[in-house]
């Protein structure tokens, strides 16, 4: 059982490294705003937690930012997202989700929502 857990962890770490190298256009756009604590708190990208990889994660306040493309409209993906969100909530991780089109078309609004959530979580 421990062996299976370790193998899963190893695979997740390898996949996270791959995803960091092969970031999408919208991930690049948002990362430019989040990196180096530009938004007031340190974020990590493609951050592995157990069997999941989080697009952007601020460990200090347990804030997760996920970017969703069109595949998140598929039934299977929606079911996976619900299961994943429930798991991460059980770890007291707060999730913000944005559509890729929001990043491309209304980045300032997205950043305002992120800043508001950072302020809220930093007060706790």
Structure write-up:
With 124 residues, the protein is of the alpha+beta class. It has five helices and four strands, in the order H-H-E-E-E-H-E-H-H. A four-stranded mixed β-sheet has the order 1-2-3-4, with helices on both faces. A hairpin with a 4-residue loop joins strand 2 and strand 3 (63-68). The protein is globular and about 45 Å long. The N and C termini lie far apart (37 Å). 16% of the residues are buried.
List keywords for this structure.
124 residues; globular; four-stranded mixed beta sheet; alpha+beta; 4 strands; single chain
Short account of what is shown:
Helices cover 55% and strands 20% of the residues. With 124 residues, it is an alpha+beta fold. The model has no long low-confidence stretch (mean pLDDT 86).
Low-confidence stretches: none
What proportion strand?
A: 15-25%
Number of helices: 5
Counting DSSP E segments of at least 2 residues, the number of strands comes to 4
Q: What distance separates the N and C termini?
A: 37 Å
Structural class given helices, strands, pairing? alpha+beta
Helix content: 40-55%
How does the overall form come out from the CA principal axes?
A: globular
H/E element string?
Answer: HHEEEHEHH
Order of adjacent strands in the largest pleated sheet: 1-2-3-4
Mean pLDDT: 86
Radius of gyration, in angstroms, nearest whole number: 15 Å
């Amino acid at each position: 059982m421990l062996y299976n857990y370790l193998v899963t962890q190893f695979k997740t770490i390898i996949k996270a490294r791959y995803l960091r190298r092969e970031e999408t256009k919208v991930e690049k756009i948002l990362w430019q705003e989040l990196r180096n604590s530009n938004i007031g708190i340190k974020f990590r990208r493609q951050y592995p937690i157990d069997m999941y990889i989080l697009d952007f994660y601020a460990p200090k306040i347990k804030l997760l930012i996920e970017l969703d493309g069109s595949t998140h409209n598929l039934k299977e993906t929606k079911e996976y997202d619900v299961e994943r969100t429930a798991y991460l909530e059980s770890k007291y991780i707060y999730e913000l989700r944005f559509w890729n089109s929001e990043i491309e078309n209304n980045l300032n609004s997205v950043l305002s929502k992120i800043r508001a959530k950072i302020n809220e979580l930093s007060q706790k």
